[in-house]
Amino acid sequence: MFQSTRGLATLRSPLLRLCSSELDLFLNKTVANPGRKKSTWDLLVYRSMATMRRPLPSQGPPLHAYFLLAIPVTAFALGCWQVKRKTWKEELIEHMHRRLHRNPIPLPLTMEEIEKLDYCPVVITGHFDHSRELYMGPRAQINVENHKGGEGGGIFSTSKAGYNIITPFKPNDRDYYILVNRGWVPADRKNPANRAEGQITGEVTLNGIIRLPEAREPFMVKNSPERNVWVYRDVDKMAQIADTAPIFIDAGEDSWIPGGPIGGQTNLSIRNEHLQYILTWFSLSAICTYMWYNQYIAAPGLRGRLR
């Protein structure tokens, strides 16, 4: 009798599953008829029907699929972490602006107090020692719109590059020097000889903002103390080179005098791109979860129903 593999595949096709009621009627008249001799074909049909009625085995995703779940889970965790980072950054920005609008206070006497007053306005009286200047840059001029002689504007200004002039300053009420960022000058005026009229002598009172050390960003060029070039604010190292206390103050906008550095060079822009990161990580988690479900849950179930 006919027993080809093609016939067996046909009997197990989805089409026969849809016609199972008709085949039941056929079996009752033929295969199940006790008075009829069973042929090989009858037995083949009967076994195929029994196979189709048998419930499909319940098989979960393979073991390696659970390791792949680490991708959406990790992305979701990073999204939650960015939510916390966003809250922290917004509180930091609010705290900074709230502190900037305080009335200036005298410079605290102890380092413990100073270290808690980043961005806090202070007022100091004393004199400069221009013989020990440090140069931080090259960098663009910022917050320059209200300065006489200023050009460009904003940290991403197209104005020419220059340097911030960091000068030791001796407060009258201290027996040590501190570091004061007097402001920005173009590169061709980095040499003090080219701005002699701006080298303040005698006693001066300054409004400024306390600044703490800043960490070196990834891939940022390192400072070169031996060449007196500072890319970022390493207060401890600067103080060691200039022989001052590790206290750093940005002079305010009103410190500018003709021919001198342009004050008010405090960078008040703090990047807050955490909302973008939140959307990115949560979207990645959702997409990867859908792909995982479609690959290891939905697709095997569909294939099982079509066998």
Automatic annotation (TrEMBL):
For this UniProt entry, which segments traverse the membrane?
A: none
Q: Which InterPro entries match?
A: Surf1/Shy1, Surf1/Surf4
The record's keywords, sorted A to Z, are: Membrane, Mitochondrion, Mitochondrion inner membrane, Transmembrane, Transmembrane helix
Stated family: Belongs to the SURF1 family.
GO terms classed as biological process: mitochondrial respiratory chain complex IV assembly
Source domain of life is Eukaryota
What GO cellular component entries does it have? mitochondrial inner membrane
Localisation:
Membrane; Mitochondrion inner membrane
Q: What is the membrane topology here?
A: Multi-pass membrane protein
Gene that encodes the chain: LOC117640580
Role played: Probably involved in the biogenesis of the COX complex.
User: Know the name of this protein?
Assistant: SURF1-like protein
Extract the coiled-coil ranges from the record: none
Protein source organism: Thrips palmi
